[in-house]
Design a protein that fits this description.
Oligomer: single chain
Largest sheet: 6 strands, antiparallel
Number of helices: 22
Radius of gyration: 24 Å
Distance between the termini: 51 Å
Length: 526
């Protein structure tokens, strides 16, 4: 990893207007974005409650009608005249740092905004059927009172089912259940030609079922998903263990938690580690616990989700001072423990929002909607964050050829490493080469068979993108289901910078030409 430690600082940077806009952005956030965010949260809550009051039969009927509208809209497209197909969702609504510039090219929009309902929670089959715009907060609000939950619950409430399936979703329970997409039982898709299909791992559309994850919605429109449920308990028994030493020592502690070498130890339901410096971190292991256990004399219950409570990462940090301790957290509050502070990003947006006075007076308004932060930042602030800020998640595995701790004969244990914040050199007023930092990281991941999540900013060329990701199955699905020339390729959807209509069309035409050539060769062989 020596190449990742080479200096990326290029001397002192000049103070510009955008620096002041970023520094004092908190004024706009407090007086405008927080109140508007609260109104949006309230409206969403009321909409969810209204939907829950409807019968499952009525919700399903509305769903089928909305699917018909999507099919009708797709069939209105003129391939020779209209651009490539994409959703009508505004670019800034997506939760992620990546610029959604592909919509600046000519495109044909299909409105999916109605697909935001929980259609069914089947406690007998242990499956929840939901539409793609249902978010994590909706699901846990509906399932936790039933002592049920989806197996992988992302920490941020605003993350949607569609984004986690078409993109990437991981949590502290993924060492047991895999990625969010691994917990999906079936997907309902509207294909490029208007057909509606249900894909599972073992039906005639199994190739599509396995092709959808990481495809970024480029194989068709996801209109519903059936997701595996698990039985849970009311509380999470969470153990906070401080870890000191080198990064290798911290990583080993994590490996020991994920796959204990001691046969007497049971793998925890949830595992998470926060690294606060090169030599200090805190490992957290959580197991579901009953209300009876949590309320026993001597046990501590911590309602971390209450608006006035310390931000979770700061609470975790106290373990470095206090030593190991155990407490019980209501399960739903534990699931969304990082929502109020957006992990630790809110410290940059509202530097004093973690203070006691703010938490008591205005903490109930937190967090500001990520979509509103993106919608109001403007081009200058957006570019500033891309150049001087880091938000990256990556999947990494061991580098040894032999089986590692946590691996099995048929699967390899990957770990999500998340890096979020502003580099220290930026605070010191030094120039940071963000593009070079991302490029070096991506090259390191390619060499070590890791993966970069697609919600983040990328510097990958098309060649390097397909060195990181295997295109074979994806391209097979594109050709079989007729998405070439209708939906944009996942590379061009993820690519940094603006995508001209000409650039995208030429890329799709090249794929169509290659497909036609392959078909002719197959006919000649026959």
């Amino acid at each position: 990893m020596a190449e990742l430690q080479e200096p990326l600082v290029r001397g002192k940077r000049k103070t510009r207007l955008v620096d002041f806009l970023v520094q004092f952005r908190w004024i706009f956030v407090i007086f405008f974005l927080l109140p508007i965010s609260a109104l949006i949260y309230l409206n969403t809550y009321l909409s969810v409650m209204w939907s829950a009051m409807k019968s499952e039969k009525k919700r399903q009927k509305e769903h089928e009608e909305n699917v018909r509208k999507v099919v009708k809209r797709l069939k209105q497209r003129n391939p020779k005249k209209d651009g490539l197909v994409c959703t009508a969702r505004k670019p800034w609504i997506a939760v992620g740092m990546r610029n959604v510039d592909y919509k600046r090219a000519r495109h044909f929009e299909v409105d999916l905004s109605a697909f935001r309902n929980i259609l069914e929670i089947d406690a007998d089959r242990m499956v929840a059927k939901v539409e793609p715009l249902v978010n994590m907060g909706q699901i846990t609000r509906a399932t936790c009172p039933m002592n049920l939950s989806i197996a992988v619950v992302s920490e941020l409430e605003d993350l949607t089912v569609g984004g986690l399936i078409n993109g990437y979703g991981i949590e502290g329970s993924s060492h047991i259940y895999g990625l969010f997409s691994d917990t999906v039982v079936a997907v309902e898709m509207v294909l490029a030609d208007g057909r509606v299909v249900r894909a599972t791992k073992d039906n005639e559309h199994s190739d599509l079922f396995y092709g959808v994850p990481w495809s970024q919605g480029t194989l068709g429109f996801l209109v519903s998903a059936e997701i595996k449920l698990i039985r849970i308990k009311e509380y999470m028994r969470l153990t906070y263990t401080p870890v000191r030493g080198s990064l290798k020592d911290i990583a080993q502690d994590y490996a020991d938690a994920v796959a204990p070498t001691d046969p007497s130890k049971v793998t925890a339901d949830f595992i998470e580690g926060l690294v606060f410096s090169e030599t200090e971190g805190v490992m957290m292991t959580g197991s579901y616990a009953s209300g009876e256990e949590a309320r026993r004399k001597g046990n501590k219950i911590n309602n971390v989700g209450w608006w006035f409570k310390p931000w979770f990462y700061q609470h975790v940090q106290t373990a470095l001072r206090k030593g190991e301790f155990v407490e019980y957290i209501p399960t739903r509050q534990y699931y969304h423990r990082h929502t109020r502070s957006l992990f630790w990003e809110c410290k940059l947006i509202l530097p004093f929002a973690d203070q006691l006075w703010f938490r008591y007076l205005l903490g109930w308004l937190m967090p500001p909607k990520v979509s509103l932060l993106k919608a109001t930042q403007g081009e200058a602030i957006r570019n500033y964050y891309h150049d001087n800020h880091v938000i990256q998640d990556m999947l990494v595995a061991g580098f040894e050829l032999n089986q590692r701790q946590g691996d099995t004969r048929y699967a390899q244990m990957f770990t999500d490493v998340g890096v979020y914040y502003t580099p220290a050199c930026v605070f010191r007023g030094e120039e940071f080469d963000g593009a070079l930092a991302v490029h070096r990281l991506e090259q390191w991941l390619i060499r070590n068979h890791g993966y970069e999540t697609q919600y983040a900013v990328t510097e990958l060329s098309e060649k390097d993108f397909w060195r990181m990701f295997d295109a074979s199955h994806y391209e097979l699905c594109r050709r079989k289901y007729g998405t070439v020339g209708t939906f944009m390729s996942v590379y061009y959807k993820s690519k940094k910078g603006r995508k001209s209509d000409r650039e995208v069309r030429e890329a799709e035409a090249a794929v169509l030409l290659e497909t036609a050539g392959n078909a002719e060769e197959e006919e000649e062989e026959d």
